[in-house]
Amino acid sequence: MSVKTFITAHSGCEGTPDNSMEHVRAAVASGAEILEIDVRSRDGVLYLWHDEKADPFGDGCVLFSDFLDELKKTPAVRVNCDMKTDGLAAAVMEEAAKRDMKEQILFTGSCIGEEKIINELGGEFWHGIWEPEEFEPALAACLENGTKVMNLPCKFVDAERKARFDALGLGFSCWTANSEAELRRLLELGIYNITTRKPVLALKLRKEIQGE
Are 141 and 147 in contact (CB under 8 A)? Predict the structure, then answer.
C-alpha cells in the first residue's frame, strides 16, 4: 500500500496517567508521529487537563509550557491539542511561538470557529464531530474553510465515507481505536490518522498491513 496512516498516542497511552509527563514520554518512545493532550486554562495559565469537574492540581499537574519544553526535545513529533474550552488557540500558539514550535501544533476539540486564527498563527485545525448527524454540516464546513481533516469517533468511518472523502481530497482522523480488530479495520481502510491508547500495537499492525 502506498498510504501511511499516522498514529496518534491518546492521552494516557500504554497504561500511563492521562495528561502526564509519563504519557508524553511513552508516546514519544512508542514511535507515534503525534501525541494527544487535553488543554484547559485556569487564571490565564494553560494546563494539561481533561475534565473540568476534576481538579488536576496535585503533584502530577503539568503546565502546558513545561509540556512544550519536553516535546521540544523531539521536533519530529507533533501534538494534537484537544481543546476543552473555547478561545485558547491564540494562547497555545503564543507559547509554541516562543519555542519555535508552531509547526508541531495541531488543534481538535472545542475550537470550531477559530480556524482563521489558527491558520493565521501557523497551526493546523482538524474539524471534530461527535454524532453522525453532524457529518454533513461538518463536511460542508471543511470544504468552505479549507480544513483537510475531519476528526470523529472511529465507529462512524466506513468504506463509503472514506471513498467520498478521498474524492474530495479530505482525510479522516479517528478516535479512540484500541482493539486489534478495530485498528486492523481502520488501517486496511487507509484512513489519515488513528488515535489510540495502544500506539505500540498500532504501529506494529501498520507495518504489517501498510508496509514500512
Answer: yes
Q: Which domains does the chain have, with CATH numbers?
A: 6-128+177-210 (3.20.20.190)
User: How high is the pLDDT of residue 51?
Assistant: 77
Paired residues of 172 in beta bridges:
150
pLDDT tens digits for 96-122?
999 999 999 999 998 988 999 999 999
Residue 26's H or E segment, with its range, is helix 21-30
Q: Are 130 and 173 in contact (CB under 8 A)?
A: no
pTM above 0.90, yes or no: yes
In the block, cell 509527563 appears at 21
* Integer Cα distance of 104 and 174 in angstroms: 19
29-52 mean pLDDT: 92
Q: What's 34's DSSP letter?
A: E
DSSP code, position 39? E
Q: Please check whether residue 171 is in contact with residue 192, taking contact to mean a CB–CB distance below 8 angstroms.
A: yes
Name 175's bridge partners: 153
The alpha carbon of 58 is separated from its chain's Cα centroid by a whole number of angstroms, namely: 25
Yes or no: say if 45 and 89 are a contact pair by the CB < 8 Å rule. Answer: no
Residue 115 DSSP SS3: helix
pLDDT 10s digits, 176-199: 999 999 999 999 999 999 999 999
Query: Exposed, middle or buried, 78 (CB in 10 Å: 0-12/13-18/19+)?
Result: buried
β-strand pairing of 6-9 with 45-48: unpaired
